[in-house]
Design brief:
mainly alpha; globular; 74% helix
Length: 234
């Protein structure tokens, strides 16, 4: 059957177009959330001071969008569960955009010592912990949905039309998003108990993502060599 006549591939293209539109709407929500009437020069300067926070939040939303675009390139077909998973990603992104905006804007206000514009949302250490907690859980849920999406593609690669040359990339993406989900949970967990008194720790947890990804290859090869030595005949 030609690719143009494959209903699963056509459904995948339609679903991907819907997800693209949802991410575009999420970016619109980012802009609307920080929009204020610019009826004076002071209001204009205030709006310009929010640009760095808007750019940071936009970059994070774009990261998730590019991840789904990569999934669409690697996995051309969709089944019922992968479709539901994609819809769950859309819903989570539209909810996640609000704590994302609050955290990034608060971070830029704090880093700039109030020079950049933003709403003063964090007044106590408890407020900061609450914000990190909500953001961490949202980040973990969103990253976990991507991990499950890639996991299903890895398990049913033939059914979903994954090219044999791309199956290594599918498994690698599953591992990367699993690491990201764990980092979000660790960040949220660090807001409880004695660790809650160190406000920098929850944010530091996200720096574990590139470290874990960098170590993923060497550690995997180490275990592979051990497995080969263990299974080798005497």
């Amino acid at each position: 059957m030609a690719e143009g006549g494959d209903p699963d591939r056509e459904a995948g293209r339609r679903l991907d177009a819907f997800v693209d539109a949802a991410f575009a709407f999420a970016v619109t929500l980012l802009i609307i959330a920080s929009a204020e009437p610019t009826a004076s020069i002071d209001a204009l300067w205030n709006a310009l001071g929010r640009i760095p926070a808007s750019l940071g939040a936009f970059a994070l939303i774009a990261m998730f969008w590019l991840a789904y675009r990569e999934f669409g390139r690697l996995v051309p077909r969709r089944d019922t569960l992968s479709t539901l998973n994609a819809l769950a990603i859309v819903f989570t992104v539209l909810v996640y955009v609000f704590p994302l905006r609050m955290l990034v804007e608060s971070g830029f206000v704090w880093i700039s010592r109030g020079w950049l514009s933003g709403t003063e949302m964090i007044r106590t250490l408890g407020d900061l912990n609450d914000l990190f907690r909500i953001y961490g859980i949202g980040f973990a849920v969103l990253a976990g949905l991507f991990a499950v999406l890639y996991l299903r593609a890895a398990r049913y690669s033939e059914r979903l039309g994954v090219d044999p040359a791309d199956r290594v990339n599918v498994r690698a993406n599953c591992q990367i998003w699993t690491i990201s989900a764990v980092a979000g949970l660790v960040s949220a967990a660090l807001t409880f108990g004695p660790m809650a008194r160190t406000p920098w720790l929850p944010g530091f947890a996200y720096w574990l993502i590139p470290l874990a990804i960098a170590l993923r290859g060497p550690v995997g090869r180490l275990f592979a060599r051990k497995a080969v030595r263990k299974g080798a005949p005497s």
